[in-house]
Amino acid sequence: MSKENEPVPPAASDVVSTEASKELSLPDPEPAEVPRTGSSPLQATVSRPFMLGLFITLGGLTALGFAFTLGRISTILMYVALAIFIALGLDPLVRWLQRRGLKRPLGIGLVYATFLLLVTGLTLLISPVVVQQLTSFIGSIPQIITDFQTSDAFLWVTENYGDQASDALATVSGFVSDPQNLLALTGGALQVGIGIGNVLSGALIVLVLSLYFLASLETMKSWLVRLLPAYERRQTASLVEQICHSVGDYLGGMTILALMNSILVGLLSMILGLAFPPLMAVTAFFITLIPLIGTVLFWGIGTVVALFHSPTDALVFAIVYFIYMQLEAYLLTPKIMNRSVAVPGALVVIGALVGGTLLGLLGALVAVPITASIILIVKQVLIPKQDAKTAAP
Fold it and tell me: How far apart are the first and last CA of the chain?
């Protein structure tokens, strides 16, 4: 055999590399299971009753403190919420002026000045009427008592209950004529004055806040979107714009409809010769701001008030206002509210009742915009996510 056909022995370096590769290719040994000697923090806490009681007590105190804090600042939160809704309600007018070529700061100034003039005019219109009614009522109390003594109702009560009715009436007369009671009434009037002062100061705070919110509305929306992750900002920004525009259009439309109600009631009250037409008009404005049930509610109130003047006037008022309600429901509301989110009637009633129970008139006013916003979020966020789930996990 020749040397060329003899096998060549492997070099030492090749042997070492082969052995290393075999060692590297060996599977890693399975880690030995380490016995668990400790316990979780929750188990440790449960095993120590004193620590468990301490944590429960601290949690309860924290919840009570949070609830107490919310109670203390609830008035401020209501001011902020009302200011935001006023800003959203005025924003459509500002956008309308912007589309006409007016810059936003100038449009805000013009809209807000007009809004302040309207609020001031309504305040000056209703305040003398309220003061006049209160003054005339207090001054006519003795005459009311005298007229009641000669009425058939008092004679019937006297015949059936004897001297008890006369004693009760004498007690009322003595209370009214006693100077000490007048001082007590003055103290009550002072409390009423303080309450009126609080209302005026709150209204001023709301007006100032609404101006700031209206001026910085775009900045607030951009910062709200930037708080979210970058991949969610585009959809969230579109959703925020739709919600703001829908709420603004809704509030603006409701204000226009309430103003039309107020004008109709004022004119109808003057034509029929009812008492205090300005007061009736302002009352109609605030009550008809309540969605869906406001016009029906004022229809009953206005008819009852007209009934004290004359049954014929009450019938005329009820018929004319009922005709207007049909025109508003089938003609005016679809024309004015066509750009806002449609809310089913049942949800409108439920939202108005819940909002009115929680926050009174303010809650009833903002319930429908909040419901519309929730419906918009469900339509554009929740339903598409559910539609994308075509297979079971």
Answer: 71
Lowest mean pLDDT among 74-78, 164-168, 252-256: 164-168
Question: What's the pLDDT tens digit per position in 186-218?
Answer: 455 555 556 666 777 777 888 888 888 888 888
Query: If phi over 0 gives left and psi between -120 and 50 gives alpha, with beta otherwise, what is residue 54?
Result: alpha
Tokens representing residue 215 in the block: 């001026």
Q: Compute the distance between CA of residue 302 and CA of residue 292 in angstroms, rounded to an integer.
A: 17
Q: What does each C-alpha distance from 167 to 151, 158, 161 come to in angstroms?
A: 17, 10, 11
Tokens standing for residue 287: 């009550």
Specify the pLDDT at position 225.
85
**pTM for the predicted model, two decimal places:** 0.60
Place of tokens 């601290």: 58
Q: What phi and psi, each to the nearest 5 degrees, are found at residue 351? A: -65, -40
Q: What is the pLDDT of residue 1?
A: 47
Q: Cα–Cα distance between 331 and 180 in angstroms, integer?
A: 58
Residue 37 main-chain phi, psi, to 5 deg: -100, -20
Work out the burial of residue 14: count CB atoms within 10 Å of its CB; fewer than 13 is exposed, 13-18 middle, 19 or more buried.
Answer: exposed
45: pLDDT strictly greater than 60 = no
Structure token pair of residue 190: 């002072």
Q: How many CB atoms lie within 10 A of CB 19?
A: 10
Nearest to 298 by CA among 267, 272, 263, 265: 265
Q: CA of 79: how far to CAs of 85, 202, 389, in Å? A: 10, 7, 42
Q: Within a 10 A sphere around the Cβ of 9, how many other Cβ atoms?
A: 8
Burial class (CB in 10 A: 0-12, 13-18, 19+), 254: buried
Residue 229 has φ and ψ, to the nearest 5°, of: -60, 155
Half-sphere exposure at residue 50, Cβ-oriented, CA atoms within 13 angstroms: 0
* Alpha helices by DSSP H, the chain: 12-25, 41-46, 49-72, 74-99, 104-139, 141-149, 152-161, 163-177, 179-215, 217-226, 233-272, 277-287, 294-309, 311-327, 333-336, 345-359, 361-377, 383-388
Residue 233's CB is within 10 A of a number of other CB atoms, namely 15
Residue that the structure tokens 């209160």 belong to: 134
Does residue 274 sit in helix, strand or coil?
coil
Q: Residue with structure tokens 């609404």?
A: 210
